Each structure stands twice: as structure tokens, then as C-alpha cells.
Amino acid sequence: MVTASWGQVEENKTVNSFRFKATPGALDTLKISGERVILMPVSEQFADDIFREFTAEITRFMMPPPASDISETLEFIQRSQESLARAEELVFAITDQQGTFLGCAGLHARELRTPELGIWIKKSAHGQCLGREAIRCLHAWASQHLIVDHFVYPVDKKNTASRRIAESLGGTVIKEQEVLSLSGNLLDEVVYRIPPRTYA
């Protein structure tokens, strides 16, 4: 079961922002809860965790490189908060029900009505399907609240655990591409098309 809570705010009118089915609540107070995980907007309280856990090993299949200094992590958090205020990007910290940091998830309004999903989980929490639960929660919330044709989910072909997340949501490959990451790694990506969840 997925539950969400948030305050109230005026509807965002930014051209490149998400399109909401109804006037949204205040995104900076949004909390999405699953059975084992909680997603909340990323903030400075998670800076040390993100800096420590977002390692070269974690990012080997990702576009961004690990931060070389905590200031870079703080800049990332500030940019994420600014994008959230414009409803252009939702970057969440993922915790367990006791508040222990697990990783980050994102929903990015790169193209109108086809937002991009992304996630990373710290190494010590791998193998527990926590990333799958977090993405399922985010996918369910976005399907309920946003006007979406479908979601996209780019992932390196070798990242089988992440590919299984997309496939568990009915994702099908619509594109293959080679992308050079900011760390200088050549990513051999497939892009999944994931249908929104249907609500009666």
C-alpha cells in the first residue's frame, strides 16, 4: 500500500514543469510511504549520507560522477530543491521506516508527459528489493497525480537489477543508445517505456 501526504500550494505554471491532474499540494512537504520505505524531498539533512554512499562503484552505470567534496553534494541538493519549487524535477531521499538513509530516487520532467524515473540504493542495502519498492511507490504516486502518457527509464544493459525494476512495472525497451557519462564511462543503455498505473 502506498500513502502520500503533503500541504497545499498554488498550482505551478512553469512551461516545462509536470502537468498535474488537480492543483497539487506543496511538493516540499510531500512524503510517499510504502511498506518498508519512505520517500521525501532531498534536503541538507541527507548531505553526509549522500556524499558517503554515492561512490564510484554506485555510479558506474550512471550519468553523474560521485562528488569529490561535500560542497558538490550540497550544490546538488540546492539545485534539486530549486527544480522541485518549479515542479520540474522531484528528487527524493529514500529511508526505511526508522529513518535510516537508503538512497535517492528521482522523477524528471525532461519531456512533456513522459517523465523519467531514476534511482540508486546504497551498497549495503542492495539485494533486498528496496529500490524496486521505492520506484513502485514513486510510479504509483506519479500515475495518480500527474498527466502522463508513459514513463521512461534509461539503464545500462549490464545493470540487471535495475532492468528488473523497469520490467516489473511492465517496461518494454523502446531505444538503445551509447552515452558517455560525466565520469568518462561509456554507457550501453536501453531505454524502457513504462506505462502509468491505472486507477479506476
From TrEMBL:
Pfam families: Acetyltransf_3. The keyword Transferase applies. Residues 37-197 form the N-acetyltransferase domain. PROSITE patterns: GNAT (PS51186). Keywords: Transferase. It comes from the Bacteria. GO terms for molecular function: acyltransferase activity, transferring groups other than amino-acyl groups. InterPro entries: Acyl_CoA_acyltransferase (IPR016181), GNAT_dom (IPR000182), N-acetyltransferase (IPR051531). Gene3D superfamilies: 3.40.630.30. This is Protein N-acetyltransferase, RimJ/RimL family. It comes from Thalassolituus maritimus.
